[in-house]
Amino acid sequence: MASIITTALLNLIEQSGTAVATVIEGLEKNELLRSRLTRAEVLRQLKTLAGSAYQIDAAGRAEMPELDWSGWDAMRAHFDGPPGQALDDALWFSCEALVPATLLWLRVYQQHQPELFRMGS
């Protein structure tokens, strides 16, 4: 059984990832980067996701090895960095690669290890 904290963090990761996927649906990279409101919301959600992933302890991460924990840790540093090409690249890479892969693996784990996603017993 996962800790209540891990379960809550996994739910935040899923909610934030789903929000990003919904907001960017159909957008091209330049459209995302030019839209101040959309970009700000995507960055906010990605910061929540990466921050939540960062807080999951080693035991929690070990139960879900296919999730790209190190990728999210690396993106977290970029999300807190200054505006510029590195942040733009981190935003787009997260939207195009990390978020879809994370949501996919979370669905797999929800099916095969549902106890990780339940609060209490």
Instruction: Give the overall average pLDDT.
Output: 94
Number of strands: 0
Shape estimate? elongated
Rounded Rg: 14 Å
β-strand amount: under 5%
Tally of helical runs: 6
String of helices and strands: HHHHHH
Spans where pLDDT lies below 50 across 5 or more residues:
none
Question: If you had to describe this structure to a student in words, what would you say it looks like?
Answer:
- This protein is mainly alpha-helical.
- The chain has one domain (4-117).
- The protein is 75% helix and 0% strand.
- It contains 6 helices and no strands.
- It has helices at residues 4-24, 29-34, 36-55, 58-62, 69-79, 85-112.
- Helix 1 packs across helix 6 (85-112), helix 3 (36-55) packs across helix 5 (69-79) and helix 5 packs antiparallel against helix 6.
- The radius of gyration is 14 Å and the shape is elongated.
- The model has no long low-confidence stretch (mean pLDDT 94).
Chain-wise SSE layout:
Layout: H1 4-24, H2 29-34, H3 36-55, H4 58-62, H5 69-79, H6 85-112
Compose a concise summary of this entry.
It contains 6 helices and no strands. It is mainly α.
Q: What labels describe this entry?
A:
mainly alpha, 75% helix, elongated
